[in-house]
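Revision sheet: structure tokens.
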Amino acid sequence: MRIMEYVIKVCENCGAKNRVFERPGSRPVCGRCSASLDGTGSGASPVAVSDGTFDSEVLGSPVPVLVDFWAPWCGPCSMVGPVLDQLAKDYAGRIKIAKINVDENPSCSARYSVRSIPTMLFFKNGRVVDTIVGAV
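Predicted:
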């Protein structure tokens, strides 16, 4: 008997959690609204968050979230960006990658005591479980 592996994907259209089995060539759809869950728009790229959307996108996420605190003028942040893009593709449905511009969203930076960038905070069940400061 073979046990099939699955991931939980959250539908961007309606917010429903869907158990998606990893089958080659399949095109999964949401069980509630029938929107596509094939990786386009379902966590396959980092999500831009703001002070206003942080709680719902990060703290309320059903999957763990890696949040990148960055700024457009930061050289090391630019080097980390492509790595996070690849992580978002490789782990779509398992973790969410979020990016927050510290210049435009100072409240979240202050809330989590972000003193230098890039800083990455890993959230699970709405709590910070790990922190990485700098482009390691």
